Amino acid sequence: MCCNLKKRFLLLYATQRGQAKAIAEEIWQQAGGHGLEADMHCISEMDKYNLETEKDPVVIVISTTGTGDPPDVAREFVKKIQDPTLPPDHFAHLQYGLLGLGDSEYTFFCNGGKTVDRRLQELGAQHFYDTGLADDCVGLELVVDPWIDGLWLALKEVFLLQKEKEAMSNNAASRSLSAAPHVGHELNLSSEVQNLKLEDERVRSSDVPTQKLVDIHLVASTRGTEPSLVHSVPPVSQSALNIPALPPEYIEVQFLDAHGENPHLSSLISEGTTFEVPVTKAVPLTREDATKTALLLELDIADTVFDYQPGDAFCVICPNNVNEVEELLHILGLSEKGEYFVCVKVKQGTKKKGAAHPQHIPERSPLKFILTWCLEIRAIPKKAFLRALVECTSDAGEKRRLQELCSRQGASDYTRFIRDSNVCLLDLLHAFPSCKPSLNLLIEHLPKLQARSYSVSSSNFYQPGKLWFVFNIVEFPACPARPVSRKGVCTGWLAELVAPLLHPNKNTLDTKGRSTLTEKISIFARPNNTFHLPADPSVPFMMVGPGTGISPFIGFLQHRQKLREEHTDWEFGETWLFFGCRHQDRDYLFKQLRCFLENGTLTHLKVCFSRDSSTAEVAQPKYVQDVIRLYAKEVARVLLKETGYFYVCGDKKHMADGVSDAVVDILSMEMEVDKLEAMKILAMLREAKRYLQDVWS
To answer: Where is the Flavodoxin-like domain (predicted)?
Structure first.
């Protein structure tokens, strides 16, 4: 660029949990090094930008939430551009590049980004750069990093074309810019444009000899060994590294002499009203020798205004493990200050764009409260966090390995030893003992401790004032990168909380044998707008819920039973339930399903057990998708002839995809159409909200 004035582009982000914002901040940071200026805003700040009059290129980073919705902050923006009265050339002047974030474990992958991208195209906007769709299932960085790398050349091509147009005759008629060529188009740009690098601009040339010495040391010590979290092998150990820019610090922490009460948990939640409710019952649903341990908990909501429908979900506000919090305090050298109040402020003069006080951190609260209830200390560290930890590490070998793990060259090591191994901050601090991060660094980089969502397993109509939910206690076995086993943050806490209810003794029971314990948990509603029973009770429906995926269907059946009892003159459609588990005698979660079958609430119950051996001459189906195929004609009849509903709940990767494949095959076979046509029919059923999923990864 021959001009010293930095070229501006508009950078918009729409984030739900902070990832899109972090990526936008990375783009903003890198822009200056490429002679560009990013004018960055949250997409909700529509008073600070105007796409209708925007002349500069626009870059959008947007995530997806729920079952394919744009983030909450993008709702107004999406509503505005979805206005059907807008003409097809409304954004004909606009050139943009879009990076969508999503998770392919879910049906509507990157649908937030796809929705915005599609609508901008419909309104005449044109790409100056190909849309990127990053998958959190395999690692966002696999798409994000190269997408950002290519962005700078694409932007500079736009500005070069603009300059060429400006140089044309002033008498030429002005017209809309044509679509900018894609990155592959060859332009005679400077070598600075053609050789984009992500190297940290703060690394001085004097650091290079030290870097080489570290390389040699690591190669010598690890030659002939396998790579691990703490060791690398060639070619990574011998490579010059492209590492991210060091994120600017922006948080200041001050310890106070003051003491006082912990903030109320409701102050941490912006999603809605919280309710503190007692746990009145805990029932084990699996035998002790089952592969997974499933529990049913009953909550008493009678004294609250909390309401729900079968199929809804709700969220549990949970803390980090108390032992892990104490361990972290010890490593940070802050064990004596756990009860001290801390004041968290934005650092004066910080270079971080749009630096603001994190909404999930109280301005004044005890340190232990922040680490227990506010920060996700189990979060898998992002590369930006690793980059910041490099500066807190004194040992040269450890420093080099952290640089490798956050570098482009170490991408596969990052995926293998950190992401796939579920390594968290504590694991890193044990693996790299010379790393001593400050408290403000943790607050800057650890994300908000999210409330955990669970499907309701009951009907408020059937048993007023009660709420059931079912969960497996999540287990993370030890592995080389993480030498200790752990339980899930929320499920492990809940299991520990209700242990006295599961194993009562004479000291915890009253004279009638009822527990005297009243442990309480804080919850808030997370209604599901679609995963509900058909409004017309005469419509048939099928339910597929192996394992704890059966949870919402217990509520469905309770509700249907109560309706049948109170409305004997109504017509009720047939109901099907496909359930599966490993062993009939170990983890058949709800054997009382037979009761629903016997009283007519459930018309058909089909079960399978994947690990039980069979003596039958004909091999028994192992999985629910196999059972569904046995009832192809019935599935086709319910879905196509009787306009029925089909519900799927449970694991996405290992079950829900198999079920949808089975339904596609059934539609293809029964309708005598090819597979592509059958897939279109299933897509139409999804669109009509008659094929519904509540799935998780």
So the answer is: 9-152
